[in-house]
Amino acid sequence: MKKALVVFIAGLTILLGALCWEYILDRHAGEDWVRDFEKRLHDKEAEAESLLKQFRDSVNIDEYVWEEDIVFVGFRNKKVFFWTNEIIGMDGLYDGLNTGDNFIKINNAFYEVRKKVYGDNEYFALLHIKDNYPYDNEYVKNRFGKFLGVDIENADNIIVRRFAQGGEWEIKTKEGKPLFYVQHSENFKDRSVNYLIITFYLLFFISLFYVYNLLLTSASSFRMQLLYITGFILFLLLLRYTMIENQFPGSVYRLSLFDGTLMAGRTVTSIGDLMLSAFSIVQVLYISFSALKVNYQSPKVRRIRYVIMVGLIVLAAVYMFTWTYAISSLIGHTDVHLNIARVVNVGLPSIVAFVAIIMGGVGLIIIIDGAVYILKNLLPLKIVLETVVVVMGFLAFLCMLWDMDSFFWGSLFVLVNFILFAVNRYAVNRDMQRSIFILTMSLLSVYIVLTAKKYEQYRELTQRAAYATELIEERDRNFEKKLVEIDEQINDSEVIADLVANYNEEFLRLCLTNDLLDLNGYNYISDITLCRQDDSLRVGVAAQLHCCNDYFGDIINWHGERLGKTNFYFINDFDGYVSYIGRFEFGEVILYLSFDSAKDSEGSGYPQILSRESIEGIDIIYPYSYAKYRDGQLIFSSGEFNYYRSFNSFGEYHGNIAIVEKDHYSHMVIPVNESGGLVMSLSDSIFSLYYVNILYVFFVCILLSSYGLFFSRDHKINYRRGTLKSRIKNSIVSLIFVLFFILTALSIYLNTKSFEDRHRSKATELLKYVNKELEALECVEYTECQDILNVLTNMSEILMIDINIYSQKGMLVATSRPEIFTAGFAGYLVDAEALKSIVDDGSMSFVKEKHIGELNYMSVYMPLVLENNKSYILNVPYFTQNDELNLDIVIMVIIAVNIAIVVMVLAFILSGVVAERVTKPLQLVNDKLKQMRIGGKNEKIVYNRRDEVGSLVKEYNNMVEKLEESVSQLAKSERESAWREMARQIAHEIKNPLTPMKLNIQFMLRSLQIEDPDEFKKRFKDVSTVLIEQIDNMASIASAFSDFAKIPVSQKEVFDISEMVRNCATLFEMNVDYLECNIIPGVRVLADKEQVHRVIVNVLQNAVQSIPEDRKGELRIRTDKVGQNVVIRIRDNGVGIPAEIREKIFEPNFTTKTSGMGLGLAISRRIMESMGGIIDFMSLDVGTEFFIVLRYTDGIERVE
Fold it and tell me: How is the beta sheet containing 855-865 ordered, strand by strand?
């Protein structure tokens, strides 16, 4: 109890210290963040200044290691001649840098400008502060400069302004000049983590369970334990509720693992909270079941033993239902992937969730094992099995009746495990228990994987249906925001109103195209139509003539859905395209603006950067393919699956949603109208490796239970005690793990390099082809020959690549994708290293890894020499490499990791087999040595192998032979010695009564001379009395030696030892002044009742006789149940037993009393040993305490 209090106070001290520390830090969190932000900026300013001081007339780009976020650029006579990053290349760069403003925007980023001038050379250092892209998508995300330490999650939540608007923090240069202002938005998430504080919180949390364990183990009674259990559970629930509701402590909840997720209108506990809860539950269950002190012989307990049995079974069932629901909730309301074996999309949250689910399953096994352990002490196996089958069978039937499929299989899982653990506890020997334990872990692994797969497949189908709903609706929410802006601008523009009213279509097109209809990134084709009352319009391939207003009016009336209060309509006719029509009336003339989505066939790369496709909406975490069918024919498809042209290829369906398995894909066929539909497809490979996760779960289960989780109650097995077998197993597993880890890492590295080299060669060959096509041209500069744009565009569409051409000075002269440069995603300058390699060093090719936003790619450069000998630098950004290389690496990692886990599981199993085979002969020798007895039958070991163990066995066999020979000689010597000692003792004991008998007979002979008959009779009577007394004494001596010589034959029976001890104590109640009896009622043992009574009476009699007459006699008797034994303790306050004679106290004929022959304790020890019991003593300063140990029984054992 004191130890628990000390640990709790220490933990509480750590908690209070951590809270105070965190409070102090949080109080100044904003100021500290700004201070750290400014310090980082000032450090980079100093670094940039230091480099600027080293620049003179020229700069060798190879002399320095340039950081991406610190860009250096040099001008000579206002013309750029040196740069370290091409991203800053833009029109008017020099003028922009010389405005005198230290904070400017270049393309799509803000920079701090620092300048140094050396003669005609002007050098600028540009420190990247923050990106400012016009939109976000999967690849375009704003970032701060890496040196500022702002994570990408908060990049958009930190607002950067040139001028103050109130509430911002001012950021100054290292010289103290104002530079810009920053402000945190309401969505800002402080990710500053103090891991030392988190460590303190973790120590406090773990200390709670340590204190709980100390309290339970030190509790004096089961009732007190129940009080502790209830109190701790309530305290833990209150603690976890406070943590979750208040996101407390902040240091912990700033971790990304503790981010809550809101999906489908429900708040799902964070992955970190799930892990903490699972850990808490498992610890409480394990500690509680391990430390329970139940008096199974108590009448109260035995009266309610059937209620206890049903309650434990129901507890396991309720836990199973809760655990299964937690799995479904976790998968259904988060985007974690539990298909760990597939590796793809598996991050830290998925791994933590995976382990948390396994811990929950281990908790269920702890409940079942603990329940069986308790029931074993209360009820026979047959009753337990029958009750489990009835209760769990009934629950399974209800689950099947109510169509609760998962809970049905869960009920069967609990039933099977109850049966296995019951057989394990009741009927199986220790050697088989490990096998059953492995079997239960295997069943748990299979159940977890099957349950997780079922719910993840259900989540996938739900998400597929939701995504299909969006596709059927054919709307673009992101583009609709643009239409709202266009609507406002058209309604507010007097110029457009005049052009429409005057029917000036040519100038109207120029006005709208240049000012309003900038659709870069939206992937829409726009059309402008002016209609008067009698105007006609030719439509379609056949150019049929339609009334202009009627044509558009019919489309809007039949398929249109107005976008709010705007003049735009969404056209829902399921034709595979997203279409919108705007209708604006200006007097008698109506302006129609139509927008139709273009097919997304431009490939990867720059189109992905330029796409304004919204990243909001449903978070699609599966790689779907889909196709749209109209009138039974394919009208649109997207994704990897090559769809059939006919809708009937998916089979006949009757207007309902159907799942069709075909061509290794799962197809969700959704009818849209009578002759069309949508097909959503997902590759079977997504779930193909799911069953491999069984090995992962099994591996984690073994790790969690490797310290003997399910054996500690009975066998005290400690897996960390360092046995030879465990050392062999650990050595084999560790060696295989290290070697396989090294080989796997080396394989991944070498294969990655091989893949990269292969893609480099492929990109170079592609660039050579482009070079060969372009070198025949006479002009490639757009300013001189604008047709080059068409040439590059056509070649780009055919080869699915983008092409850039730079001059020998590094300036862009032509490109197949001008919008990437005009939009500021790329600069007009060539990569500086490529320029030096191609122009200065004369290299024939140069390859460099680059990125735009989050899109990584391989950029290949090559000299281009036209037939007129003009030289340029040809560049192809090779985007295909990124996807293909990632796919190759992912496939390789999947294979390597899954092979690794298979090898680890096999290593674990085989290491046990190898260790067993190696140590089995040693264990056999150990067992034989334990069984070796002097005078017993010691068997030799048969071992035919000639190895180290064979030598050991040979020596053991020789020792057995020598021992048998020595035992034979010793036995002969002991027999002779025993006979001599026995004869001496018998002679001594018989001699004592013979002497007075001889003297009395001599006295009687002398009495014959007396003539007085009365005197003679009197003397004869006295002598006869003495002779009879001595003869009785001799008979008693003979009986005592006869009893000692007899071998007691035990007649075992089950009886109440508590009642016997109480009755024996009553016999001596009048012989002592104080008698204390602390006897547990109803304790039963299996022994010889008469002989046990004889031993107890003998010990009590010795205890009473050891008390001096001048001392108040005290006698204390108590019984204890220790494990499977009953201990009877008899303590007196007598003279005690001196240390020098304690070893002789159980020897025959040894006594400390003035009377008696010293055979009582010797006979008592022989009686106890014949019954498998123990009798021993402990002599204290005052008195002696004897203890008698007998085997406890519940009365069920059958006496053989």
Answer: 812-815, 804-806, 871-878, 855-865, 846-852
Output the average pLDDT for the chain: 83
CA–CA separation, 3 and 9 (whole Å) = 10
Q: What is the pLDDT of residues 694-744, one digit of tens each?
A: 888 988 888 887 644 433 444 344 434 456 767 777 777 778 778 877 887
DSSP 516: I
Query: Under a CB-based contact definition with an 8 Å cutoff, are residues 1147 and 1165 in contact?
Result: no
Taking the C-alpha atoms of residue 952 and residue 898, their distance in angstroms, rounded to an integer, is 42
Strand extents, DSSP E, 984-1035: none
Q: What is the mean pLDDT of residues 752-779?
A: 87
Q: Of 824, 883, 794, 852, which Cα lies nearest the Cα of 606?
A: 852
Asked if 1082 and 1124 touch (Cβ cutoff 8 Å), the reply is no
Cis, peptide link before residue 921, omega less than 30° from 0? no
- Are 486 and 583 within 8 A, CB to CB? no
How many of the other CB atoms lie within 10 Å of CB of 146?
12
Q: Do the Cβ atoms of 224 and 292 come closer than 8 Å?
A: no
Contacts of 848 (CB under 8 A, 6+ apart): 831, 833, 834, 858, 859, 861
Contact present, 1023 and 1000 (Cβ < 8 Å): yes
**CB 643 within 8 Å of CB 634:** yes
Instruction: Please state the φ and ψ torsions of residue 2, each to the nearest 5 degrees.
Output: -65, -40
* Largest pairwise CA distance in the chain: 183
The residue-averaged pLDDT of 386-399 equals 92
Rg of the chain on CA atoms, in Å: 47
Distance CA(1199)–CA(283), nearest Å, equals 41
> What is the distance between the alpha carbons of residues 724 and 916, in angstroms, rounded to a whole number?
10
Segments making up each domain of the chain, as ranges: 54-184, 477-613, 747-890, 948-1042, 1047-1191
Whether the Cβ atoms of residue 888 and residue 748 lie closer than 8 Å to each other: no
* Cα–Cα distance list, 914 to 123, 427, 673, 900, 952 (Å): 71, 28, 66, 20, 19
Lowest mean pLDDT segment, chosen from 247-256, 423-432, 557-566, 1082-1091: 423-432
Per-range mean pLDDT, top range of 307-316, 915-924, 1042-1051: 307-316
Q: What is the mean pLDDT of residues 1057-1065?
A: 87
Of 311, 64, 132, the closest CA to residue 824 belongs to 132
Rounded distance, CA 1152 to CA 1159, Å?
Answer: 11
Classified by CATH at the fold level, domain 1047-1191 comes out as: Heat Shock Protein 90 (3.30.565)
User: How far is the CA of 210 from the CAs of 127, 205, 273, 1187, in angstroms?
Assistant: 53, 9, 20, 34
Query: CB neighbours of 499 closer than 8 A, spacing ≥ 6?
Result: 507, 508, 511
Task: Find the Cα–Cα–Cα–Cα dihedral 1061, 1064, 1065, 1070, rounded to 10°.
Answer: 170
Most confident of 174-183, 951-960, 1119-1128: 174-183
List pLDDT tens digits, range 968-1019: 777 677 666 656 766 666 665 676 677 677 767 777 777 777 666 777 777 7
Nearest to 1075 by CA among 1113, 1126, 1031: 1113
DSSP state of 144: B
Joined tokens for residue 600? 């997304």
How many whole angstroms separate alpha carbon 1053 and alpha carbon 1060?
14
70, 125 in Cβ contact below 8 A? yes
Task: Please provide the CATH number assigned to the domain covering 747-890.
Answer: 3.30.450.20
Amino acid at 151: D
pLDDT at 934 over 80: no
pLDDT tens readout for residues 641-660: 999 998 888 887 666 888 99
* Nearest-10 Cα torsion for 1040, 1044, 1050, 1055: 50
